Amino acid sequence: MHRLDELIADAPVFAGLGTGDLTLIAGCAQNVGFEEGELLFREGEPADTFYVVRRGRVSLELHTPARGGLVIDTLEPGEVVGWSWLFEPYVWHFDARAATPLRAIAFDGACLRGKCEDDKALGYELMKRFAQVMIDRLQHARVRLLDVYGGVGVG
Amino acid sequence: MAASASVEARLLGAMVPVAHRVVSRVQETTDTWTLELEPLGERIRPRAGQFDMLYAFGVGEVPISTSGDHDGDGRLTHTIRAVGAVTRALCALEPGAVVGVRGPFGTEWPLDEATGGDLVVVAGGIGLAPLRPAVRHALARRDDYGAVSVLVGARTPQDLLFVHELEAWRGRLDVEVDVAVDAAAPGWHGRVGLVTTLIPGAVIDPPRASALVCGPEVMMTFVVRALVGRGVPLERIWVSMERNMRCAVGHCGHCQLGPTLICRDGAVFPAAAMTRLMEVREL
Question: Exposure winner among B39, B181, B194, B236, fewest CB in 10 A?
Answer without folding.
Answer: B39
